[in-house]
Design brief:
Largest sheet: 5 strands, parallel
Helix content: 40-55%
Order of helices and strands: EHEHHHHEHEHHEH
Mean pLDDT: 86
Shape: globular
Strand order of the largest sheet: 2-3-1-4-5
Low-confidence stretches: 58-75
Number of strands: 5
Distance between the termini: 9 Å
Length: about 210
């Protein structure tokens, strides 16, 4: 059985960086944006569109016009989020079949349940997440702290709704994961060595 590690994370907690550093420490691939690139290429979608809907529930991914009888979207537009979800599931399963890896987000822990992955959840307190978003904001982006906090809450709400499409287990609840890691006031490079040791210990017991 391959060693599969999935990373679920709160927005701004540093889960993506932690996942990539952990993969480097373990000497295995880390899959994140590659999933979006592959979905876009195989389906002829814009990468920004795929990134926007790839962690939302099907309902949340629909245009806001749905529900207004005078502005119903075409069937093709309505089917696009479903195509993204189906393609994403297939790609994630293919990565797991290829060998050891770290997969970030996209409900991989539930999708790959039969592969017996080690499922991690990365979180932090709100102040730490806001500070991280400010430090890593794209050039020219000047959101207020309140705007950033609202964005964090909305993204995490979308991720929780997305999980509901795949599982009855609750996004972010400790019972849904094998290990929860609090990154508040911690540098990723400090956390990774101990986390890598935990991963090796976990899989050595198989």
């Amino acid at each position: 059985m391959h060693k599969i590690i999935t990373i679920s994370r709160e927005f701004g907690s540093g889960g993506r960086e932690l996942g990539k550093r952990l993969a480097e420490e373990l000497g295995i691939p880390c899959y994140d944006h590659q999933i979006i690139e592959m979905i876009a290429k195989e389906n002829g979608f814009d990468e920004r569109y795929v990134a926007n809907v790839s962690e939302k529930s099907i309902e949340a991914a629909y245009p806001m016009t749905i529900g207004h009888r005078f502005a119903m979207p075409s069937m093709e537009i309505m089917e696009q989020p479903i195509r993204v979800a189906a393609a994403q599931r297939q790609i994630i399963e293919n990565f797991a079949k290829q060998g050891d890896c770290v997969i970030i987000g996209r409900c991989a822990d539930v999708i790959l349940k039969d592969y017996h992955p080690l499922n991690l959840f990365i979180y932090a307190d709100m102040e730490a997440k806001v500070e991280r978003c400010i430090r890593r904001a794209p050039e020219g982006e000047h959101l207020t702290r309140n705007e950033i906090e609202r964005m964090i809450k909305q993204v995490d709400k979308n991720r929780a709704q997305y999980r509901q499409m795949y599982s009855d287990t609750k996004w972010g609840a400790k019972e849904s994961y094998h290990l929860c890691v609090n990154t508040t006031e911690r540098y990723m490079k400090e956390i990774v060595p101990g986390l890598a040791a935990y991963v090796r210990c976990w899989f050595s017991g198989e």
